[in-house]
Amino acid sequence: FPSHDNTEMSVANVLTLSDQANVESRLEALEDQDVIFGSDLLQLTSRVDSIQSCGSYYKSTQQLASTGSTDISFDTVESWTDAGFIDLSGGSGTVFVVNTAGVYHLDAIISCNANGQTWNAGSGKYFAIDITRSPDIERGVLVSSTTLASGLGWSNQVSGLVKLQVGDVINIRQTVSLTSAGQYQILGAVAGTLDKNTEFQFQYIKT
Q1: What is the pLDDT of residues 76-127, one digit of tens each?
Q2: Were 73 and a residue from 79, 93, 120, 130 both cysteine, which residue would form a disulfide, CB within 3.0 to 4.6 Å?
Q3: Which phi-psi region, left, alpha or beta, contains residue 194 (left: φ > 0; alpha: ψ -120 to 50)?
């Protein structure tokens, strides 16, 4: 009979092989599926070791956001970002363009200072990764919403696996209904090496 230590090692190896087969099977399913959420996403992103490229973009200055929808602008690229996959396009800082097709894990984080403003508490505050794929119009593909008492600062995060095509356009958008025109929230900017406040990240998984 194997020793106790060898038994634990054998079980661990079996679980690892089983998990790997499960991950590979789920990734193959993406050929016919554009987005995966929930526990499937957590298992895939924690187990897959075949990620080839990644990147991160964040804000160096705060941004005012009025009532309605606001595309978040980004002006800083992390030094370790791999170019040629999802790149910031043009001078506005709000448009990302996909230059390499494949399955990606997208993740966006927002931090918002209420700035003393008030909003309709019953309406949701929406945070989304929008994608435009010609000839379709811009659509919120990964969306999170929350309701919050008026006047409070808030933060949110949205993420998921998406199969992207070359030429797809990505915008990070927040939507809120303020009680009157001329009011502005403040979208947070970088506050430290590891504290970005508002950030967009990608990981390239497979073709």
Answers
A1: 999 999 999 999 987 679 999 999 999 999 999 999 888 888 877 777 789 9
A2: 93
A3: alpha
Q: Which residue has the tokens 């001078």?
A: 91
Q: Which of 90, 93, 66, 94 is nearest to 187 (CA)?
A: 66
Dihedral of the alpha carbons of 188, 191, 192, 195, in degrees to the nearest 10: -40
Q: Which residues of 9-21 are buried (b: 16+ CB within 10 A; e: fewer)?
A: eeeeeeeeeeeee
Q: Positive or negative CA dihedral for 193, 198, 200, 201? A: positive
- Locate 41 and state its tokens: 């996403």
Per DSSP, 45 falls in state: H
The DSSP code sequence of 146-174 is E---TT--EEEEEEEEEEE-TT-EEEEEE
Q: 106 in the Ramachandran plot: left (φ > 0), alpha (ψ -120 to 50) or beta?
A: beta
